[in-house]
Amino acid sequence: NKSYITVDEKFGWVFGKFFADGNITKKNKNGVQWNSGISFATHSNEIEQRQIIEDYFVDYGVNVVHTKHIGENCYSTTITNGQIGRTFGDWKTANTSLNIPVFINESNSSVRSSFLAGLADGDGCLHHKNIVMVCTVYDDLRDDVTNLYASLGVASHYLTTKREVWKDIHKVTIKGLSNKRNLIRLLSPYTNK
Q: How does residue 26 score in pLDDT terms, banded at 50, 70 and 90?
C-alpha cells in the first residue's frame, strides 16, 4: 500500500529522477539483505536537483544525506528509510527491465509532465538539435516513455545503437519545432535543465 505517498507534481519529478539516476540501498542483517532506502546520483553542479530531492523527503520527516564522491564531479543523495526503500524497490530493481507504473500513466497531465521532466533532468539532454529525453538499455522503458509523451500530445522517436559489449542503447528524441514548443510548454514548469 503506497497510500502515504501523495502523487503530485513534486512526487512526479522525484520519481522520474529516481528512474533515471536512482537506486535502492541495501543492508545486510543476519545474512538477509533488505532495502534500507534509496539514493540518487547528481553531478556536482546540479545543486538545485539535490535541494528538490532533499526538500521532498524532509517533508516526509526523513533524513537526507549528500555525499560528494572524492575525485569525481558526482554526489550521492541518500535517503535511509526502510519503508521508502521497500516502496521504491517495488518500482525499480537493479538489472531488471523498467516499466513506468500504471499510476503514472493514469495521472493527470501535470504529474505525467513532471515525471518526464525528472527523467529528462536525470538522463536526458535538452540542448541539442534533436532533444534527447532519455537514454536507456531497456526496451520496455523506451516504449513506455514514447507512449507517455504521446499521451501528452508530443511525438517522440527513438534511435537504437547496437553494441557488442553490452545491451543496445535506445535514445528517445523529440524532433520538429512544434513538438519542441509543446515539450517546452509541458516540461518547463518542472525541469531543471
A: confident
Calculate the CA 19 to chain-centre distance: 3
- Total Cβ atoms within 10 A of residue 135: 18
Q: What is the DSSP letter of 166?
A: S
3-state secondary structure of 125: strand
Short-list 133, 129, 97, 94, CA closest to 115? 133
Q: Which three cell numbers stand for residue 166?
A: 553490452
User: Residue 110: CB partners within 8 Å, gap ≥ 6?
Assistant: 8, 9, 12
Task: With beta carbons less than 8 A apart as the criterion, state whether 98 and 19 touch.
Answer: yes
Nearest residue to 39 (alpha-carbon basis) of 7, 67, 73, 71:
67
Residue with cell 523506451: 142
- Name the E strands within 3-129: 22-29, 32-43, 64-68, 74-80
Would the pTM of this model clear 0.90, i.e. be above it? yes
> How many angstroms separate the CA atoms of 56 and 54, rounded?
5
Name residue, grid cell 505517498.
5
Tens digits of per-residue pLDDT, 142-189?
A: 999 999 999 999 999 999 999 988 889 999 999 888 988 999 899 999
C-alpha to C-alpha distance for 28 and 127, rounded to whole angstroms: 42
* Amino acid type, 17: K
